[in-house]
Design brief:
Length: 117
């Protein structure tokens, strides 16, 4: 039973990543590029299709690398190098302010509104 399942899985893998699938993917990317250039397909959808093709054709490699790295020793922790803090010079206020008193009366001691005591 396991040999039959393994054979079926290998057959599906070869079907999805074989020469015929590679030829169809090449034609699909060419058509995809033409439709994006013609403005009939959004660029985001085109990127999604190409990413899907990368995932299909690279799935065996990714799975093999994941299985291979799990068997090895864990990678030692390497702390990230931190840059020294940047000293920022704050701007100083200038003596001249062209907007000073633009919305405030110039004579603060006197008021236009009489306030009863």
């Amino acid at each position: 039973m396991t040999d039959a399942c393994l054979s079926a899985a290998i057959w599906i893998q070869h079907l999805l990543t074989g020469q015929a699938a590679l030829a169809l993917a090449t034609i699909a990317i060419a058509i995809l590029g033409l439709t994006v250039m013609a403005g009939r397909l959004p660029i985001r959808r085109g990127i999604e299709v190409v990413t899907g093709m990368f995932l299909i054709f690279g799935a065996a490699t990714v799975a093999g690398e994941l299985a291979h790295t799990e068997a090895q020793q864990p990678v030692a922790y390497v702390p990230l190098l931190r840059a020294p803090p940047v000293q920022i010079a704050l701007p100083t206020a200038s003596a001249y302010d062209p907007y000073a008193g633009a919305s405030v009366p110039q004579h603060r001691g006197t008021s236009d509104i009489a306030v009863p005591n």
